[in-house]
Amino acid sequence: MREAYQDQLGKLADDLADMCRMVAEAMASATQALLDADLGLAEQVITGDEAIDDARSACEEHAYALLALQAPVATDLRTVLAAIHAAESLERMGDLALHVAKAARRRHPSPVLPEPVKGYFAEMGRVAVQLARGAEEVIRSQDVEAARALEDADDEMDDLHRHLFTVIMDRDWPHGVASAVDVTLLGRFYERYADHAVSVAKRVVFVVTGRMPGSGDEEL
Length: 220
What we know:
Layout (H helix, E strand, L loop, with lengths): L1 H35 L2 H31 L4 H34 L7 H27 L2 H25 L7 H34 L11
């Protein structure tokens, strides 16, 4: 019975890792749609979001079934609870990729991004996908140091986001208020995506160590 329970916990972790892959692919495609004003690619991301929502529901149902099947203790309980929270963060990451794709669709055939900020979003997309794929590896390996290292990539995203604001707020910004609003919202989507990826990694640290990074008793 115990061995079967451990197998089910392993399956739950695999499902979460697969969700990481899904949201990484969604953001990669959404970013490309944004940069290239590619309507077909944007539509693929929008249509594919339902699969991410379904994956979250499946993960949660699996987790609740494990809680009901056996009263888990210590690491097992942490694993199940962390999975529920991680699935929520991953679904949100999918939603943020969806928002990016919808922005590309809304402005089509015109590009959403003015030329001066395209480079920023190319980099933010790269970092976002790197974080999601890093979270996948952390879930599979349960490597605490790798989980903590993802915060460095999140810092890179924060720096890009701050620099993006300096471009938008320049008094010589020639692209109008509507464009500035679009860029501001899109930048926020990428920043939040990165934050959720780090949250997923922190859940792995919680599973392994029993302490949540940033809770005051965990040394970062």
